[in-house]
């Protein structure tokens, strides 16, 4: 088992680095948006190309493994997490950043067995930072160990979050209600990198105390959530319950006391789960 996980880690790092090269090259000449002009959840050809590259390369080495990938799911593949070894891939986390050349873009690769993340790799490719974690083995950035912040006072904290891509007025109201509550606690600041994977790596690195969001997907958070846990932090639901990878809700923090102060301030809502989709009139 340990050997398999080491092989998975090595392969994930190698393919994330290769993917990062493709993203960096595309930044100067291939950022055209494929989505219709009014859409805010953007997709580019580079997202699709990078996901293909990652999946092909993993399939050659680990033919029995399953995949959940952002672009494959968008193309109709199921997004069901089973007990089988599964690679959970976001080829470009921060596609909107990529399109605008806003400099935080990550390749996110999580690997689960029995529905639990065992390996997490987040490559913040414009910063050239390779974040890695193995369950029970610590979290690292470019080989240096990571540790969450030791701040216990939420008033001395920076909290990361995102506005997401849902423009439903009720959801926007909830987002602003949470923000207003948190800002007026008060806290030192609120930030957002535009990518869940990078936000989670910022928690793991001790640069922000917490990150919460509702509406992102499993491929945005699978790898980063292990980084936070292995750097000594905690991951839970935004209502303080157990974390659920497929729920599209996350609160990751340096410690329980900061997390629970945030739970009191967050106005929760429930996006449709990642593993419940209506296709041709049938739920699966
Ligand atoms: O760039 P993506 O892979 O689509 O992921 C983003 C998502 O689009 C955005 O809505 C969320 O707020 C971010 O946290 C995701 O990382
Ligand atoms: Mg993403």
From TrEMBL:
It is found in: Cytoplasm. GO terms for molecular function: fructose-1-phosphatase activity; glucose-1-phosphatase activity; glucose-6-phosphatase activity; glycerol-2-phosphatase activity; inositol monophosphate 1-phosphatase activity; inositol monophosphate 3-phosphatase activity; inositol monophosphate 4-phosphatase activity; metal ion binding. Pathway: Polyol metabolism; myo-inositol biosynthesis; myo-inositol from D-glucose 6-phosphate: step 2/2. Its cofactor is Mg(2+). It is an enzyme of class 3 (hydrolase). SUPFAM superfamilies: Carbohydrate phosphatase. GO terms for biological process: inositol biosynthetic process; phosphatidylinositol phosphate biosynthetic process; signal transduction. It catalyses: alpha-D-galactose 1-phosphate + H2O = D-galactose + phosphate; alpha-D-glucose 1-phosphate + H2O = D-glucose + phosphate; 1D-myo-inositol 6-phosphate + H2O = myo-inositol + phosphate; glycerol 2-phosphate + H2O = glycerol + phosphate. InterPro entries: IMPase (IPR033942), Inositol_monoP_metal-BS (IPR020583), Inositol_monoPase_Li-sen (IPR020552), Inositol_monophosphatase-like (IPR000760), Inositol_monophosphatase_CS (IPR020550). Mg(2+) 1 binds at residues 70, 92. Mg(2+) 2 binds at residues 90, 93, 220. Keywords: Cytoplasm, Hydrolase, Lithium, Magnesium, Metal-binding. One of its GO terms (cellular component) is cytoplasm. Its EC number is 3.1.3.25. Belongs to the inositol monophosphatase superfamily. Homodimer. This is Inositol-1-monophosphatase. It comes from Xiphophorus maculatus (Southern platyfish). The lineage of its organism: Eukaryota, Metazoa, Chordata, Craniata, Vertebrata.
